[in-house]
Amino acid sequence: MSIVIINNFGQYNHRISRTLTYLKIENKLVSNETSLEDIKAMNPEGIILGGGPSIERIGNCEDIIKHINVPILGICLGHQVIANVFGGETKSAEIESYAQIDLNIEKEVGIFEGIGDSLKVWASHKDEVITLPEEFEVIASSDKCAIEAMKHKEKEIYGIQFHPEVQHTPRGGEIFENFYKICKK
Hints:
The structure is a single chain. The chain is globular. A ten-stranded mixed beta sheet has the order 2-1-3-4-9-8-7-5-6-10, with helices on both faces. Strand 3, helix 3 and strand 4 form a beta-alpha-beta unit. It is built from five helices and ten strands, in the order βαβαβαβαββββββα. By secondary structure, the protein is α/β, with parallel strands linked by helices. Helix content is 24%, strand content 35%. The chain has a single domain, classed as Rossmann fold, CATH 3.40.50.
């Protein structure tokens, strides 16, 4: 198995799987209630924590982050869960919005390798990370949110506020391909 996608009941989780399949990246979409043992038995090379409506419905996501040692990409709610696990802070955005925004890439590393210094993305700003975890660095921001994307300083753990799986993020496939390259290392 290549990439295991954790379904956090977000409207785009199935689209993540379809996008990876289109990119010829083997993947499996599983419920966030799937046990750690079952996920480990799938022998994932990487894990994507999908988006979702509520921090109250994250199932086993925190345990997955703490106990499965593979590259992780958290999208939207997945990004917020990663921040919380590592001591960051999330809260409801002052201005809730769902729109295409201009992302400022501050560090062209990892998932942003070869992307350049800006990118149009579809972002959901209902809840967002407001305090960066100590072990992380900001790798992208926007005029809507200071922490649009973050990376663990030593591990291959990434969180992004935006949705690379939708059409309104025209180069989203490149982000998934970069994540897959990280997983194959």
